[in-house]
Amino acid sequence: MIFFFGTRATSVLTELVPNLSCQYCGEQRMYLVISSRYFHFFWIPMFPIGKSTYTVCNHCKQTLSINQMPQEYRIAIADQAAKAKTPVWQFAGLMIIGVCIAVPILIGIIAKITH
Ligand SMILES: [Zn+2]
């Protein structure tokens, strides 16, 4: 049998960062991009693995990860980054497995009570 599994990423947040200019070209429009990576099994999201945070300059397209950002960038994005939540649907696979375990147990309990 062939199993299809791996990881995929989805964008969680893309927002303009106020009061931040590009350190390379001076552009005022800097975007904060946060993506969330998840493990999938037959394309069903099972659980999230982690988030990636980047800033992207609208003009020169310089892209910096959290480890590459200067301190002023990290301060500027802190509040916006904090509100980026992992989407609940990335736990869909675990929820399905949970339901498949819980439902037979509940049916068993109900059957014992009613007999
Ligand atoms: Zn730039």
From TrEMBL:
Transmembrane helix listed as a keyword: yes
Domain of life, per lineage: Bacteria
InterPro entries noted in UniProt: Zinc_ribbon_15
Membrane-spanning parts: 88-111
Keywords of the record: Membrane, Transmembrane, Transmembrane helix
Domain Zinc-ribbon intervals: 21-68
Keyword Transmembrane helix: yes
Name of protein: Zinc-ribbon 15 domain-containing protein
Lineage: Bacteria, Pseudomonadati, Bacteroidota, Sphingobacteriia, Sphingobacteriales
